[in-house]
Design goal:
CATH topology of one domain: SH3 type barrels
Largest sheet: 8 strands, mixed
Shape: elongated
Order of helices and strands: EHEEEEEEEHEEEEEEEHH
Strand content: 25-35%
Amino acid sequence: MSLPEQLLLSDLLRSRVRCDQGLDHGSGVAAWMHPPVHRLLGWISKPGHFGERRLAWRLDQLRGLGELEAFVQGPPAESDLDTVDRLPTLIGANLLDREGAPIGRVVDAAVELSSGRITHYLVARSDPRLPGSSRWRLSPERIVDQQPGQVFSGLAGLDDLPLARASVRQEFLRRSRRWRDQVQEESSRLREKVQQAGDRFEERLEGWLEEEPAWERDPVAGDARPGPEAWDDWLEDEPRVDRQASPQRDIRGYPPQDTDPRTPRRRPAAPPDHDPDPWF
């Protein structure tokens, strides 16, 4: 039975250990690791439901993996609960950001089976036992320091880490953030188009205002007609009526009568469209 190149520690711990003699030695309960060099040495199984007896298995004893079984070869090393609790591990430690505030918890690790090297850790924001919770990938290079139960990093938040598995809520937030970015891009593009159209309209409006009004241009020659300031000169050039040569008329428009009272008064002819003057 072949082994994969990498394996999640959680898949190994949930499998029941079965030796080459066919005996069931219980399921895994803890990881046996060396945190300073980020290496997994083996794991611990609990052979019974009661008692403090524990069994330690080396990683090189693993020979195959079934659906829910891990097949090993060779005898285990016996231990007890107190000794297992004192084993150093980063699984379950709190992940702290650059300010020292907890941002998650280390819940799993990806292990290279040929050497036991931990390629990356998996960090959860909430309880990892909740179904569908998100996982972020934390590489050992991002770890600044470590203490029992605490892992220090220079991160500003979990968003600085690549997402290994997204929950329904996290996937919705990520899609919402992507949609919001797309809407902002479309809004910026539309705002630029409106600004360009406004600039073109403003340029046309300025050119229209700078043009000479149509009523001040000669429609034939195309040049400007004389403005109101030249009207006085034009009126002065108007021919005058010679009032001495033209016959004078009274207020009714009739020629004046002779000044000699002995001259009989002549009645002017009435216009053809009007009745004769009743006074004459």
